[in-house]
Amino acid sequence: MSLNRFLENAISPWMKKDGAESDIVLSSRIRLARNMNAFTFPLFANKEEALEVATYVKEALNESQTEALGSAEMLTMDDLKTNDKRILVEKHLISPHLAEQSKYGAVLLSGDESLSVMVNEEDHIRIQVLSSGFELEKSLQIANSIDDWIESHVTYAYDRQFGYLTSCPTNVGTGMRASVMMHLPALAMTQQLQRILPAINQLGLVVRGIYGEGSEALGNLFQISNQMTLGKTEQDIVDDLEGVVKQLIQQEQAARITLYENSKLKLTDRVHRSLGVLSHSYVIDSKEATRRLSDVRLGIDLGIIKNVSASILNELMIVTQPGFLQQYAETILSPDQRDERRATLIRERLKMEYKQVEE
């Protein structure tokens, strides 16, 4: 098992692909929650039952391979160090719940890290498919193919009236969460989000931070997903979410044009100030770093900054998180030490980018 393959590279291979509307929609995700009818659900299972589920699923999934998994590997939570699990969370490869509360959990990861099958999370099986840009339909097709493949090896807990049975009642039905990660700096700067976000909630969608439920929306990054899973088909859920996301894309694009045309000097000053802070700071906390990175990303998308690639900003959003910082330092760091390491890492990475452009 080569755990380093998933820990050493901040940018997962799937993130390097160019998806639709990738300047605003960073990623799309489909997640399916499933349970097996012959076993106690994870939240109520004892140690022996949880281990039996993990063994059963591992053996079932190892019986055959499917093309979407590629060179897949199974990682067991009990075998991982605390910081290793933290890094997998920071890369969105596993959920915080699996990392923190599921000692007998595991995850099957595909070669390009776009697909993960979590075992003994809140539910027995959670299938997650990630795609770059606005690619919900593509993600749904892959998730359904993996779901069918797994169902050919295990028997799901399913009710004709209620659909797939899950630990949390809000997931009963399709068991599906569809979500997109959006970068909405112009709407935030023009204070339009204060009006838009409550309206989104009224449409049956929920807006969260970068790491989902309970997380803060740092760097103007927002995760938008469906709230209801019962009474709708998977396609209905995707169609509803796509309709709202398309409107948000149009509104963000309009807000960017307005900012650029009406406040070009102030916007240019803000963007370059943030680039200057990132390039020369010796201490910077995560909130300021993500805020500055958001400004620079907007500057890149609008053509204000030309010597930094957008992919570098995606990378820095991840490697400046606590888990990666401690991996590079090869030791546990205090908050002050992390702020110093974060600043150093950003400075050095931007210098490398400038050098590559000059060459």
Automatic annotation (TrEMBL):
The keyword ATP-binding applies. Belongs to the ATP:guanido phosphotransferase family. Keywords: Allosteric enzyme, ATP-binding, Kinase, Nucleotide-binding, Transferase. Gene3D superfamilies: Glutamine synthetase/guanido kinase, catalytic domain. CDD domains: bacterial_phosphagen_kinase (cd07930). Residues 24-255 form the Phosphagen kinase C-terminal domain. It is an enzyme of class 2 (transferase). GO terms for molecular function: protein arginine kinase activity. Its EC number is 2.7.14.1. Pfam families: ATP-gua_Ptrans (PF00217). Appears to be allosterically activated by the binding of pArg-containing polypeptides to the pArg-binding pocket localized in the C-terminal domain of McsB. A motif (RDXXRA motif of the pArg binding pocket involved in allosteric regulation) lies at residues 338-343. ATP binds at residues 27-31, 92, 126, 177-181, 208-213. It comes from the Bacteria. Catalyzes the specific phosphorylation of arginine residues in a large number of proteins. Is part of the bacterial stress response system. Protein arginine phosphorylation has a physiologically important role and is involved in the regulation of many critical cellular processes, such as protein homeostasis, motility, competence, and stringent and stress responses, by regulating gene expression and protein activity. This is Protein-arginine kinase. The keyword Ribosomal protein does not apply.
